[in-house]
């Protein structure tokens, strides 16, 4: 079930939407495992721009670029229950099995980690639930439509049902 859609007129708005989401995640945590945010969309649809704004909302000052060739870039999160932001670009992965050497199964159980995956559809079989998924659509005149979902189990559910650690 789709939660909501947001239209973005430009990169600045996309970054702002991402900052708001990451700040809300910081306030909500920690969860039972890592917080997973999957980004899905065509090349040039705004996934990396979103990742940059998301990192800004976490207080990360470093320049965030798509880690296409290194696959994963980790950043420390300061003054939070969460300790690490892992930015993953799954574009070069041919299948979900290629993510095993990255330590994926350990990462997704770490409740102090926030993981953002660009090209999440490429490793859909190993993406855990619950997770936030955002689908990017390219619209005319450089606009973007961001479709927000929460995936729980085998289906999609409302974000209010996210499982939190007590």
From TrEMBL:
Q: Name one GO biological process term.
A: tRNA threonylcarbamoyladenosine modification
Cellular location(s): Cytoplasm
Single annotated GO MF = ATP binding
Record has ATP-binding as a keyword: yes
SUPFAM superfamilies xrefs: P-loop containing nucleoside triphosphate hydrolases
Keyword terms? ATP-binding, Cytoplasm, Magnesium, Metal-binding, Nucleotide-binding, Transferase, tRNA processing
Per the record, the similarity remark reads:
Belongs to the TsaE family.
Q: What protein name applies here? A: tRNA threonylcarbamoyladenosine biosynthesis protein TsaE
What's the source species for this entry?
Candidatus Niyogibacteria bacterium CG10_big_fil_rev_8_21_14_0_10_42_19
């Amino acid at each position: 079930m789709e939660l909501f859609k947001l239209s973005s007129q430009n990169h600045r708005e996309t970054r702002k939407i991402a900052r708001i989401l990451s700040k809300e995640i910081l306030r909500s945590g920690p969860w039972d495992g890592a917080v997973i945010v999957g980004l899905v969309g065509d090349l040039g649809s705004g996934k990396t721009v979103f990742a940059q704004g998301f990192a800004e909302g976490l207080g990360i000052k470093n320049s965030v670029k798509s880690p296409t060739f290194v696959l994963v870039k980790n950043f420390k999160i300061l003054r939070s229950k969460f300790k690490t932001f892992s930015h993953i670009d799954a574009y070069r992965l041919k299948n979900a099995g290629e993510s095993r050497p990255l330590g994926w199964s350990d990462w997704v159980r770490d409740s102090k980690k926030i993981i953002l995956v660009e090209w999440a559809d490429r490793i859909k079989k190993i993406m855990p639930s619950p997770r936030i998924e955002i689908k990017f659509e390219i619209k005319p005149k450089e606009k973007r439509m961001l479709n927000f979902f929460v995936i729980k189990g085998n289906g999609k559910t409302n974000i209010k049902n996210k499982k939190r650690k007590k």
